[in-house]
């Protein structure tokens, strides 16, 4: 068997597990790759750090370039943009294939990296960048390569799913649920990247690029977080057979690709509604395949390492035996739609004046702005004041700009609406 | 781009969709395969049959060998054992790769076919053989190639899942639910292959072979059907937070591979409990990956065709650009365990004499046979006779032979048990 030399960059939670599995399962991995996998070095910032698994000290180095230049396959698990980008470009320059789990880097520099891999005629694999062990990158890149994908809708951030799940099942407030997630290590001390949706937006960009054979970057994705989700919103969703989830959505429409990351109401009959805790799940709809779902742990050292190793086996197989990974082809000229043109169903909850003619006036504003309504319900409990009540309006598919005009007009020009308490997208069952 | 010539054998529900998608999406498929895909012929039994999609008449032939001998890739969708096996062997002999959805053939002649493909150094792909569009073959063969799989547990037969789902959600009897499935085209006039578990057993053999890198055939799989599932069993499961599902299970134990197809109690918190209607879902547990699930339509022309086309794209890519599919490697010497050695938790319901000392006597028989009990409950409603009541016993992990001895002894030697009303495996949450 031909030897394939592997350089590992980073030995954190995932990197240490990759080194462990490469050692413990070496014989099986060699058989599967059709190659003799040899770990030639592990680049780390600090040789003496404590690690989840003891990497033989002769493999450790602080000089990443020294091992990159000898490698056939480079595994990049250090994270961050720089110097990860420079290391990967150096790997390609030296004819090595690359396996990475760096979603932030791919969402920002994906096109550059794919072009560099193509030019060097080597592979760029990144299963671990979306959904941890969940093989959705494989699914989109290979399993559905004979189909035309219409919609990708996923729970791709375990932290926010944990928080929303605890709010739903235990009735916790956002603050308490976040604190619990932090205590359990499911959320960072600074939770911004997760709770404001940026992590999910980077994954959304990767999924959309793959699904629609185009180049989507982070800045293309309209993104909302979950800080504004209250127990009241959760309770009201439950009462109406919905579950609130932070979703990443990428949809093919006739005029372009529509993207969204943010909280949405998922009908309880939808398979995503039942995804609990820190698990991830991605629903992929194809013209022929109908609806598929990929489900599993979205994070964690060993699960993510499993995804890295499957990429490594494929990349090493190609190095030793020929062939290559599917290229990230761009074809067609489907534009990415501006967020204002997105269409969705929406549910708006508002506090309104409880007097004759108010409902009529509000409906008039919706109609004038071309937003068609499927459902209106008024709740008797008032807002603590006399003369007000809650109104819940669910729309048919509406254009976001039209919805926004409706909201602005109701906020500014109408005496009928005191305030909006929530505005959420509604996914179809 | 290099031309890759494709011969299609069979133009039934799936074959006609494959021909349609190959024609309609030709440009996209060519780009993805990195090859010019040319359908050179479609072998059918009767040229003049009515089909779901009109195949150009100049492509139709009744002489399969004539197109097989010119092809680079042969797609076999005719079903049955003979002459499908002979056609596929002829394809390999001529250096063509093969894509098939023929689970019965693979479960019986898999080893022969894999060996023939290896010898010819061509690909044998069969995503459509398990779970329709659900990419579980891909998942096991490629996405989890860096992991060590411990358990595959799946709902792989849509017909029985539909029947059990209707019994559960609508309270139908087995007979009425079966009739409804037949009316909707979800069950055959002769439903034996589905309801007696044989279809699921063939898929179980394929999944186990893939997951554990060994050769499992249909006859290795202890198989039970669902004809004995009564509304009473369903109702009792529901009351105890279980759902009855026909599952295919393949588990790696220290001493070998344990296989089972049959009805089982799935805890409602388990992701398989929520799989509705004719959908399929396969849970795969890996040492590193934790628990993944693949979900989607398990049958239907277009979904299954989507799986066939993804295989075609991969096979054509290899033909044009080098590389090959992962080989079905056999390594290690893990034996397939005899069904009597299988271990599982079980739930037994029985009608027992309602008198002092009976429970003690029954518990004694379990203990003597080494079956440890986790839970006992007695129901007050009697069996229509005086002096009897229902007893439900749930065991810890027990060896099947020990359980069988317990049952035999209680049936034959004991006055305490009038009869057993159900004996079901219980899956862990």
UniProtKB/TrEMBL annotation, chains A, B:
Q: Where is the ACT domain?
A: 347-428
Gene Ontology MF term list: homoserine dehydrogenase activity
Its protein name is Homoserine dehydrogenase
Q: What class of enzyme is it?
A: oxidoreductase
Q: What does this protein do?
A: Catalyzes the conversion of L-aspartate-beta-semialdehyde (L-Asa) to L-homoserine (L-Hse), the third step in the biosynthesis of threonine and methionine from aspartate.
Q: Which UniProt keywords apply?
A: Amino-acid biosynthesis, Methionine biosynthesis, NADP, Oxidoreductase, Sodium, Threonine biosynthesis
Report which reactions are catalysed by this protein. L-homoserine + NAD(+) = L-aspartate 4-semialdehyde + NADH + H(+); L-homoserine + NADP(+) = L-aspartate 4-semialdehyde + NADPH + H(+)
EC number, as in UniProt = 1.1.1.3
Query: What pathway is this protein said to act in by its record?
Result: Amino-acid biosynthesis; L-methionine biosynthesis via de novo pathway; L-homoserine from L-aspartate: step 3/3; Amino-acid biosynthesis; L-threonine biosynthesis; L-threonine from L-aspartate: step 3/5
Note the superkingdom of the native organism.
Bacteria
By sequence similarity, the record places it as follows:
Belongs to the homoserine dehydrogenase family.
Source organism of the structure: Actinotignum urinale
Name the PROSITE patterns for this protein. ACT, HOMOSER_DHGENASE
Cofactors needed by this protein, per the record, are: a metal cation
Among CDD domains, the record links this protein to: ACT_HSDH-Hom (cd04881)
Short name of one Pfam family: Homoserine_dh
